[in-house]
Amino acid sequence: QVQLVESGGGLVQAGGSLRLSCAASGRTFNKYYAMGWFRQAPGKERGFVAAISRYSSTYYSDSVKGRFTVSRDNVKNTVTLQMNSLKPEDTAVYYCNADSSASVTDITTISARDYWGKGTLVTVSS
Fold first, then answer.
1. Do 44 and 99 meet the contact criterion of CB atoms below 8 Å apart?
2. 103-119: per-residue pLDDT in tens?
3. Beta strands 18-25 and 3-7: pairing type?
């Protein structure tokens, strides 16, 4: 089992920055898990934001590319999402994700294999 706990959400004005963190734990978690972030805005489906593979390759949705940066610390078992130049359309609940797959397709999409945190709310005011 894998447990994920997010932190760092909040309210920020458009153009501002926020930093989300996610701590992973559990008997089966290890550095070979890909980790990432998905988000769900009101009335919308949960969608991919960013991911970092077991080899530290990074992937981003087109909507956040150039503004968000994902990174991981394999000693502390954490993944961080630095969000800059935030826009009102970035408002959503952000979920930390862990996936044991090495496939880029797998780690950038939702599957039954995924582990999830409970989410943290990010609100960007205009």
1. no
2. 888 899 998 889 999 99
3. antiparallel
